[in-house]
């Protein structure tokens, strides 16, 4: 069984979820993860000649700009979170106004499965606890969207981020702003 723990980054004070002594890739941002990995592999400095020999035998790393990382690296906690919230909010916004009993059951099952299988164990445990405190409401599009917005704002609060105005869920994830800017 995997050993899970949380460490605190001494520089930033951020929680760093760890699994088997390694940072959870889906639970921490890319910069923190790479910093921790580099710190683990830091070795005594080699001589200039040894470095030259090593450089000849090792391929040069790919370009490390943000676009390259976005297209080629596993998602970090920020990317995964942003895209996950987009998917979940969009699903809620397109959920029927009058769902059938089967659609209600399916949505409940989806969120139960989602909360059990999310790749960041630290995040999924929090989400599961939040679902116990405020169970999913699948009565209709409005109630599901508001329930999800509250869940998202709980996470935003924990991360010190700005709260989202839940009265704007359909503007953000269904219709776009009234000025039509998203339609251009």
From TrEMBL:
Its cofactor is FAD. It catalyses: 2 R'C(R)SH + O2 = R'C(R)S-S(R)CR' + H2O2. Residues 1-23, 38-73 are annotated as: Disordered. Residues 73-173 form the ERV/ALR sulfhydryl oxidase domain. It holds the Pfam family Evr1_Alr. It is found in: Mitochondrion intermembrane space. GO terms for cellular component: mitochondrial intermembrane space. It is an enzyme of class 1 (oxidoreductase). Residues 1-10 have a biased composition (Polar residues). Keywords: Disulfide bond, FAD, Flavoprotein, Mitochondrion, Oxidoreductase. Its EC number is 1.8.3.2. GO terms for molecular function: flavin adenine dinucleotide binding; flavin-dependent sulfhydryl oxidase activity. InterPro entries: ALR/ERV, ERV/ALR_sulphydryl_oxid_sf, ERV/ALR_sulphydryl_oxidase. This is Sulfhydryl oxidase. It comes from Rhizopus oryzae (Mucormycosis agent).
């Amino acid at each position: 069984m995997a050993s899970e723990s949380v460490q605190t980054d001494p520089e930033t004070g951020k929680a760093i979820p760890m699994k088997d002594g390694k940072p959870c890739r889906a639970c921490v941002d890319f910069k923190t993860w790479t910093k921790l990995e580099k710190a683990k592999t830091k070795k005594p400095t080699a001589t200039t000649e040894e470095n030259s020999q090593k450089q000849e035998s090792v391929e040069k790393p790919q370009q490390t700009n943000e676009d390259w990382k976005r297209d080629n690296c596993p998602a970090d906690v920020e990317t995964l979170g942003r895209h996950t919230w987009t998917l979940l909010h969009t699903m809620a916004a397109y959920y029927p106004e009058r769902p059938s009993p089967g659609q209600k059951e399916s949505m409940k099952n989806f969120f139960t499965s989602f909360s059990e299988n999310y790749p960041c164990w630290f995040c999924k445990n929090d989400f599961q606890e939040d679902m116990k405190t405020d169970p999913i409401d699948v009565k209709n599009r409005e109630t599901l969207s508001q329930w999800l917005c509250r869940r998202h704002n709980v996470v935003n609060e924990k991360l010190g981020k700005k709260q989202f105005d839940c009265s704007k869920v359909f503007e953000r994830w269904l219709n776009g702003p009234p000025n039509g800017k998203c339609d251009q």
